Amino acid sequence: MTAIVRTDRLSKSYGAVTGLAGVSFACGAGEVVGVLGLNGAGKSTLLRILAGELLPSGGSVSIGGVEPGDDARAMRSRVGYLPEEPPLYREMRVRDYLGFVGALNGVARRELPDRVAVVAERVHIDGHLDRVVGELSMGYRKRVGIAQAILHEPDVVLLDEPVSSLDPAEIVGMRELVRSLGGRRTVFTSSHHLREVHETCDSILVLHEGELLAHGTQEELGVLAGRERIEVEVRATAAEAAGRLPAGAQAVHSADLGGGVSTLTLDLRGAEREDVAAALVGAGFGIRRLEPVRSDLERVFLDLVRGDGGAAGAGRENGP
Amino acid sequence: MSTVLLIARRELRAAFAGLYGWAILALVLMLDGLFFNAWTLGSQRPSSEVLSLFFYTNFGVTMAAAVFVTMRSFAAEREQRTLVLLLTSPAGDWQVVLGKYLGALGFVLCTVAAAVYIPVMVWLKGNLEWGQAAAGYLGIALAAAVCTAIGIFCSATAPNQLAAGVAGGFLVTLQVLFWLLSGISEPPLDGVFAAMDLYREHFEPFQDGAVHLKTLVYAPTVSFLFLLLSVRVLQARRWR
Q1: Residue A159 structural domain
Q2: The domain that contains A281 carries what CATH number?
Q3: What is the 8-class DSSP label of residue B42?
């Protein structure tokens, strides 16, 4: 993987308070990366450092191989950033605002009108270009915020809580928009909404108290959290089958289907699928089906931040 | 330079886009008019004295306008969370500070230009000395440059607009009270304080038509110093 964003032992302190502590990861071009964490985990701090708003206290960060110490302005020109509160001048019309931001980010004056029109269509604000920013709903303000972040065609787009303060319909629209930004550019999106991350992101960074707990796909994080979930359909009653499970396999749901057949959903913590199959077959129960169940991100996330998970960074190339 | 002008233009437009800028402009015109009416209309003063009095009052009003305009500059952007737009753009910190400074200074000079009807009245009804008028306006512009730079620094430093206004008002007032300090100080401090005084040492000769080279050096130097401090404040914010 060719990394476009790379951090190495990145740290940030606010006086005695630790914002980030030794965070190392690498992300490739075109990835949509979710940044998950509880309040105060360091999500916004990470995005603000990547955006160039803050400088790290230690370690290094690079965007496209450019570090802030080498050329901070060149690094910032490769990034588009939408903070949680969109940075909008409320007295300006949307068209003028986008024109200003585009020019500020180096878009040539003659290209600006076309660029604004294309981006406005992309984020579905083309019918609102002549409205005053302060009159827009929060959903449209967020869209204008995304428009300003992608107007100069940056390599990396950073979205801090893009769905906060949005109504359900706006959330669906924003989810599609964030998903569509990937592919051509690397997108980082932080969120408290696990479903947003689940549905929009290729990989996930899990931060907790400034430390990177995990980085990987949702499946990789599930393994990292020390838990695999499977579903078994077996020729036995649920009670009989549950009584024959090996150590390290725990039934979290079961149902008798009738005719001496039941299904069990099992959490595997230490036990392997083969152990389950051997135990049930050994007890004389025929297995009709055994398949993995995709991990629920919410459970995986909670397992990780509660300390049930494994070491940071497993599942992915991390750090230099 | 285009980035500086881009930011300056937006600042200037923003000042006129809301009620705030127009309120400052109206206040400046009202105060200039009131002082002119109270001190000169109906009196038998010579034109040069009338003009000198106008520049005297306009100096004070312009200083206040500079503080009121600049207190919003960085502080309002921080409160509205729009400063991040500038700080994460490829614009350098110097460009941001200079853009904001030129935008604010442009507005302050607009308020100065709005009161130009008073010298025009002197010209129409009296005997205007063009040299004195030019020197007076040059002095006003230099004083505005200094006070705007002080205000920009306070706005970059203070946590909110009110604190920026109070700090700016204090520092600008201090600039015209250095002569008091010089009066009670022993050499060589008295000379230092006198040289730092904005009104008596630097502006007063201009309102009477005399252009002093030391002021032409003093004003850009003090302005540069405060703008440099503002840049350092922005840079420190990235490290905080």
Answers
A1: 3-78+154-223+300-305
A2: 3.30.70
A3: T
Look at residue B175 in the predicted model and tell me its pLDDT.
Answer: 86
Contact call for B84 and A106, based on CB within 8 A: no
Considering CB atoms only, which of B14, B90, B92 is closest to A105? B90
Between B192 and A159, name the one with better pLDDT: A159
Q: Do A73 and B80 touch (CB under 8 A)?
A: no
CA distance B96 to chain A (A): 10
Mean pLDDT score of chain A, rounded to an integer?
A: 87
Smallest CA–CA distance from A87 into chain B, residue: B82
- Does A29 contact chain B (CB < 8 Å)? no
Residues of A in contact with B94 (CB under 8 A): none
Residue A217 domain-assigned (yes or no): yes
How many structural domains comprise chain A? 2
Q: Do B90 and A81 touch (CB under 8 A)?
A: no
Q: Do residue A50 and residue A181 come from a single domain?
A: yes
Are A71 and A179 within one domain?
Answer: yes
Q: What is the mean pLDDT of chain B?
A: 91
Q: Are residues A188 and A279 in the same domain?
A: no
Contacts of B89 in chain A (CB under 8 A): 76, 101, 104-105
Secondary structure percentages of chain B, helix, strand, coil, to 5: 85, 0, 15
Mean of pLDDT values over A7-22: 92
d(CA B191, CA B63): 24
Give the pLDDT band (50/70/90) at residue B61.
Answer: very high
**Tens of pLDDT along A95-104?**
999 999 999 9
**Structural tokens at position A172:** 């669906």
Give me the residue from B2, B6, B84 closest to A100, CB to CB. Answer: B6
Average pLDDT estimate for B56-81: 94
Contacting A residues, span 72-111, partner chain B, CB-CB under 8 Å: 73-74, 76-77, 79, 81, 83, 85, 87-92, 100-101, 103-106
Q: ipTM for the complex?
A: 0.89
pLDDT at A267 over 50: yes
Is residue A266 domain-resident? yes
φ/ψ (deg, to 5) at A208 = -150, 120
